[in-house]
Amino acid sequence: MKISTQMKTKWMQFKVSALSASVTALIVSGIPTQISASDIDIYQAGGTGGVNIYFMLDASASMESMSLNSDYGHSTQRVQKCAPEEKSRNVIIYVHTTSSNGNRIYYKKESGGAYTFNSSTSRLTYVGAGNGTHNVKSTFSTGWTRTDNNNKYESKNIIEKYTENVCTTVASKNICPSNNYNKLTSNLTYSEYIYAEKGDSYCRVNLNDLTDHALDVTYGNKIKKICEQESTGSTFYRCLTRLSILKKGLYSVIFNPDLNEDIYFALGTYKGSSATTHPKFLDDSGKVKFRSMDDDGKEILAKAIQDISTGNGTPIAEGFNEAALSHYNKVNFSSKGNISPECSGNGVYLLTDGVPQSSGGSYLRDNEATPFKLKIYNDRGVLVETKTASEIPQGNNPQGLKKYWRYLGGSVNYVAADKAKNIKTATVGFGGMYYKNFDEAQLKVNSKGNFDCTLLTGESGDLQSLCYLGEKRSNYGKGGFYTAQSTDDLVDSIQQFVSDVSVEIEGSTMGTNTIPVDALNPTQLQNYSYFPMFKPIVGGDEQLWAGNLKKFAVKTSSGTIVDQSDKPVFKAGKIQEKLSDYWYDSAGSSDDDVYMAWGGLLSKLKVNKNPLDSSGNISFKRKIYLDQNGDLQLIIHDSLDDDEILENKKHYLFGLLGYSKLTQTDFNELEGKSFADQLNYLETKNSAQDFQMGSVIHSTPIMLTQRGVFEEQDGEYGITEREDYILAGTTQGLVQVVDADSGEEVFSFLPSEFLTRTNNSQEKGFAESLAMSRFTTTDTDNFFYGVDGPWVAHTEYEYAFEGDKEIMTAKKQYAYGGLRMGGRSYYALDLTDLGKTSSKPKLLFAIKPDNHISGALSYMGESWSKPVVTYIPWKGHKKLAMIVGGGYDRKYESQDVTGTVKGNGIYIFAAEDYDTNTKAGSLLWWGSSNATNSTSSTKIDTMTHSIPSRVKAVDRNGDGITDHLYVGDLGGQVFRVDFNSKLGVSAVNTPLVQQAVKIADLNTDGKNPRRFYEAPTFTIHKDDKGERFAMVTLASGDRSSPLVTETNYPTDYIVAIKDDTVTQTTVTAPTVITLNSMLDISSTSTFNKGTHKGWFYPMPKSDGKQLRGIEEGIAIDNDLYYSVFNPDASTAKEEGGADDCTGGVTGKSIAYKFCLPYGDKTCFGTTSTSNPEKIAELGAGIVGLTFGAGRTQANHRTLIFNKDVSPAPPEYAVLDKLVPKRWFEYLPFNSGGE
């Protein structure tokens, strides 16, 4: 054990990040901190597991030519066939021979040859009878008086041509008679494989032989669907045997380019009285071997299909038995990367063209007294059990057949119910028997196997029984029933079955364990761990990764995390199911998800925040606050009824208030309704009632302590009567505050910008984030990040005494945080009254760069930088400030970044109200290449890259006021900002910043810049002459794309910069340090204290992938620890490991130890020869370093791992030292060596 040498009688006069005058809540994570950046691509989607399908195919004689007539035989209808003929006739016409008076003349023929108009309301015209010229006699509707006029019309005889249908009787024609089949004159092939051989019988159908009778039309459609057109435009079709169609369909599936190596097939046939597996799908021991559909596997399967021959009998039971047992008694089973059978989707594709028969014509197993059995063997071929299927009523068969189908149905039901095997059975009715009438012939496969079995009649109920055996709604095979008549039908059914069999595998459910330091006694850790869990869904269109937050206990004797029943959270590295965490509520948990959604805060929401009251009326119980007009607005009935406040977006909020299963259709219905009508609508949507949480990925939970009592109990001092709360942001867009004891949500804060965004520069998917299976409707990033930034708390306590009790109560409690990739804003909440009766949170400030198109805030990027809340010297006074980096620009998602970027700056804001002119959230100072030089800004010409990291604040003299800032950027540079630290009246007009300078450029010529995503560590040391100097250490690594290594990306480094100007009485700007003036500690050279300006360690490559440092380091007593990420490792690659099925996490993190200040080996153990010293693996993914309670004493600290490591890492003693009359945040370890 190492005793910290800092625990001396006097403090070194150079403290790091000391806070002042009142205790500031120290929120420290414990147990490995999983991921902290735009690094979600380290999660491998579960996606789908391997697919293993056994094709058990009917090879009975009916698959050959004997069924041609039953499939294609047809007698055309005896009808009259009519055709138009041209004819002529004599007619009389009238020709107008003189000019008209403008009136049109109408007429018709009457008896006696006279022509007259037939209406009494219009002008009537009479024309005389017979050929010749006639005067027109006009009559009007009144008086019926006929008068002559001078218009002349001439009547003539002409011959008129016309057409008329002439019908003749057409005799019926017999198509495809059984005694007159055609013979193929050559082989028919698909992708060079034969599906019909020369000499095979087939039916040749000419569509011109058909009439327009409805029955002939239906038959013609059937032929066009099932048969092959001889040539383009031909009316002749080639109708092949069922076996030929089957082979062609299988070839079409095999050689589809979408069928990849993750799909595994096996092939067998049944005929006569037995079923066999094709020899190419057996291994040396005779067990079934599923073959991958890579190029070799496709060729093997195609040749096996070509070899299929037929025989008498249809032993369906034997066929199913052979296929089903292949999934149990396997040797070479599945699939690359998926070892366990539960990781794969397994299926039996059982195809028949008839009903069960043996070669003798009797039904096989139909009257057996012994029920159908499955003999189950282990991987060594030893019989381990015999499963007897229960008799399950099925079909309307005679008694003997009824038993047959019962036993077979029981077997299918048994294998489908075995969750460890995931075996589904699809049944396929193939051929004419399964379209007994013309309506059935038109049934398609687009029902996805959901077939109405009552449509199949005949064969004493056998057809229905086969249907029920596979049909999805029958609860037996669950793989579907299909009527397959053509090649296309077969292809569609197989593709659908492959899709149905594919196992949807959720990604690994994991999160960040947080063991908070006790804010009331920073030398002690709490005995509880707060554990977010979530479901990564990588590569999909979903906008929400659903999550949960749980509370477990820390078992100090073993260093493990356990639930209420002392059950370890992890077993063999895998999260156990149905963990009863300390927030578990059985009424809010379901077997639908025994991992992520079991227990936790989510179960409490479901039970305690039900949107209905005891009478069944809507009464929203969840408290959600929106920022509106500079304050927080509680979302209750009144505000929901106010369209102006919520800008017509209130209907989305119902998803957060207890209706998380609302669909987009529901949202569309709700949008145009009044509030009263919306409530009426919701009362009809009980099925939509539920709660959904987002995932906690980067917004690590923090603890807020409102109150505690320090008292003696049984001779020991401890803290009782605690009021603790947990705060975390989620990808659903909420900041949730939870009672740490009960797990009940106190309130949630929803930034209103998620409701009101209209630009595409940020995700607009708030509505889609309310529940799982919501998909983006825009072209922006699919993932909705919500509140994903890290938050911090600042708490000041006041003290009172009651007898021997010391009562500590928060007089100020603020929480600050950003959105990370969820946006650019920062928010601060005043939680001082948290937990008090009728209290409500207050909005301290909201900084929204999206609202600024110019000025300092317009240059801010996404709010990645974790706020640093510290005191600064502002106009001669000590003032509380929030300091952040400028943020992140998504241009860095690419390896090559060009042009200007957002986030290239440092910003300092007032963390609380200073006076009437300087309110909380006011910008006090910023520095950037975009800034100008003034008292409130500094132009830093080289600060052109984004700064997403936390800013390191340093207090040089222990007065509780920050004097210096350090930060790295995504351009491989390191900057220092020096404050004018004077206080008092004389400093009222003194600028805050004395200078802002670049102290190091750590890039390599010809390569892209290195990237620093995390804050540096800072330590103070003395050289041999007693002169103090600082070591500023950082780790480079591309956190935006942690798995990508481009050729132009440089080797990542751990770097330690020697800053000997910051310790001078008058701080001066250093000469910019480069790698040329630093020592490569991987070499054999030693550190030259006179000339070297620091050292660096080039992180090696593993299998061509760059190891990276993308977490903050920790410096303790001249020891420096860093977590190094290896992207080549993956939990999914570990056979039998935690993530055989879940896809896993790509990459692992390893803890390495370096020696300060010179990077030598002086701090290593005696057996260590390498530099650096490898301590142990931290776990899967990007895992940060965490210090927890020591193994030997409670006041010791040591590195925490997810399993026991040997040798154990060093322990560091933690001893309190108090400065009289003043409270400081005291570092429990030495920052350097005197």
Task: Describe the structure in your own words.
With 1234 residues, the protein is mainly beta. Among the domains are: 1-47 and 955-1234, no CATH class; 81-168, no CATH class; 178-239, no CATH class; 242-501, von Willebrand factor, type A domain (Rossmann fold, 3-Layer(aba) Sandwich), CATH 3.40.50.410. The chain is built from 16 helices and 63 strands. Strands 30, 31, 32, 33, 34, 35, 36, 37, 38 and 39 form a ten-stranded mixed beta sheet that branches. Strand 46 (964-968) and strand 47 (973-979) form a beta hairpin. The protein is elongated and about 125 Å long. The N terminus and C terminus are likely disordered.
Identify the notable features of this structure and list them briefly.
disordered N terminus; mainly beta; 1234 residues; 31% strand; elongated; disordered C terminus; single chain; seven-stranded mixed beta sheet
Report the major sheet.
Answer: 10 strands, mixed
Structure class: mainly beta
Q: What is the CA-based Rg, rounded?
A: 42 Å
Topology, number of strands? 63
Give the termini separation.
19 Å
Helix content: 10-25%
Q: Mean pLDDT, rounded to whole units? A: 78
Counted by DSSP, the helix tally is: 16
Task: Tell me the quaternary state.
Answer: single chain
Overall 3D shape: elongated
Strand content bin? 25-35%
Unreliable spans are 1-37, 97-126, 138-150, 330-339, 358-385, 388-402, 436-446, 1135-1140, 1218-1234
Write the layout of secondary structure elements.
Layout: E1 33-34, E2 51-58, H1 68-72, E3 74-75, E4 79-96, E5 108-109, E6 115-116, E7 124-127, E8 132-139, E9 146-170, E10 174-175, E11 182-183, E12 188-190, E13 193-196, E14 201-206, H2 214-226, E15 228-229, E16 236-239, H3 242-254, E17 263-271, E18 274-277, E19 291-292, H4 295-306, H5 316-328, E20 345-352, E21 373-377, E22 383-388, H6 399-417, E23 423-430, H7 438-441, H8 462-470, E24 478-484, H9 487-501, E25 528-534, E26 547-555, E27 560-562, E28 570-571, E29 574-575, H10 600-608, E30 624-628, E31 631-634, H11 637-640, H12 643-646, H13 650-653, H14 664-671, H15 675-682, E32 702-713, E33 716-729, E34 735-739, E35 745-750, H16 753-756, E36 791-802, E37 805-818, E38 826-830, E39 842-847, E40 868-874, E41 877-885, E42 905-910, E43 923-928, E44 937-939, E45 952-954, E46 964-968, E47 973-979, E48 993-1001, E49 1017-1022, E50 1028-1035, E51 1053-1059, E52 1079-1080, E53 1094-1098, E54 1101-1102, E55 1105-1106, E56 1114-1116, E57 1119-1130, E58 1146-1155, E59 1173-1180, E60 1183-1184, E61 1187-1189, E62 1196-1199, E63 1211-1213
Helix pairs in contact: 3-4, 3-9, 6-8
